[in-house]
């Protein structure tokens, strides 16, 4: 079994395209396409439809028999981006 990212990479390479070319032709930022291949993010439904059409397969073929994706850890409370905000009480 492979992951969606591994499958995307194999199909894209079979077309002889780079990640950048795929992103441009799919009208998504290159960083978004890279995240799909690296397994950081999954494509939205509209993006998956465009992706399957571009790769010449169906959405079902893209997602069939994929290896289970490990659950992502939940964000820790109070650990957002940047410094914590100061709360001023009057």
Report on the structure:
It is a single chain. By secondary structure, this protein is mainly α. The chain has a domain at 4-63: 434 Repressor (Amino-terminal Domain) (Orthogonal Bundle). The protein is built from five helices and no strands. Helix 1 (4-14) crosses helix 3 (30-38) and helix 2 packs across helix 3. The protein starts with a helix and ends in a 27-residue tail after the last helix.
Low-pLDDT residue spans: none
Let me know the number of strands: 0
List SSEs in N-to-C order: HHHHH
Q: Can you tell me the CATH class of the domain at 4-63?
A: Mainly Alpha
Classification by helices and strands = mainly alpha
Question: Distance between the terminal alpha carbons, to the nearest Å?
Answer: 59 Å
Q: Which homologous superfamily in CATH is the superfamily of the domain at 4-63?
A: lambda repressor-like DNA-binding domains
Shape from CA axes?
elongated
pLDDT averaged over residues: 85
Q: Report the sheet with the most strands, covering strand number, pairing sense and barrel closure.
A: none
The name of the CATH architecture of the domain at 4-63 is Orthogonal Bundle
| Percent strand | under 5%
Please give the share of residues in helix: 40-55%
Number of helices: 5
Oligomeric assembly: single chain
Rg over CA atoms, rounded to whole Å, is: 18 Å
The CATH topology of the domain at 4-63 turns out to be 434 Repressor (Amino-terminal Domain)
């Amino acid at each position: 079994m492979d992951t969606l990212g591994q499958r995307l990479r194999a199909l894209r390479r079979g077309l002889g395209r780079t990640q950048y070319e795929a992103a441009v032709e799919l009208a998504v930022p290159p960083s978004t396409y890279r995240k799909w291949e690296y397994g950081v993010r999954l494509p939205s439904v509209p993006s998956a439809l465009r992706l399957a059409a571009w790769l010449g397969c169906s959405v079902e073929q893209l997602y069939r028999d994929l290896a289970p994706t490990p659950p992502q850890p939940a964000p820790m409370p109070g650990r957002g981006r940047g410094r914590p905000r100061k709360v001023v009480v009057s």
